[in-house]
């Protein structure tokens, strides 16, 4: 698996993204559209219009890293909302990448530290 963990924050950009964008183009989306700090260690996720490709952009100590996954079959599930971006949990990212339907997941009650 990729080197992300539950202590990081994950933001999904909901608009369809041109997968030809690389570091500068994706950084521009984060800076101009999401108004988030680029070097915070947060993970920014971008999905294309057919929802079969995903890119994850993250600052890794001394530079940016892009993780790119393209599905040969199927699509990525995008949580429904009208917001430009949404924060998702690490567990939800793993389920998205593995093709698990987020709507059908039933969560049991667990303690969490108030934010």
Strand order of the largest sheet: 4-3-2-1-5
Structural class computed from helices and strand pairing: alpha+beta
* Helix percent band: 10-25%
Shape: globular
The SSE string, one letter per element, is EHEEEEH
Unreliable residue stretches: none
Content of β-strand: 15-25%
Return the average pLDDT rounded to an integer: 88
Largest sheet: 5 strands, mixed
Q: From the alpha carbons, calculate the radius of gyration and give it in angstroms.
A: 14 Å
Question: Nutshell version of this structure?
Answer:
With 115 residues, the protein is of the alpha+beta class.
Describe the structure.
The chain has about 120 residues and is α+β, with helices and mostly antiparallel strands. The protein has one domain. It has 2 helices and 5 strands; from the N terminus they run βαββββα. The protein has helices at about 25-35, 90-100, and strands at about 10-15, 45, 55-60, 65-70, 85-90. The protein has a 5-stranded mixed beta sheet. β1 (about 10-15), α1 and β2 (about 45) form a beta-alpha-beta unit. It is globular and about 40 Å long. The relative contact order is 0.22. The model has no long low-confidence stretch (mean pLDDT about 90).
Q: Topology of this protein?
A:
Blueprint: E1 10-13, H1 23-34, E2 43-47, E3 53-59, E4 64-70, E5 85-88, H2 90-98
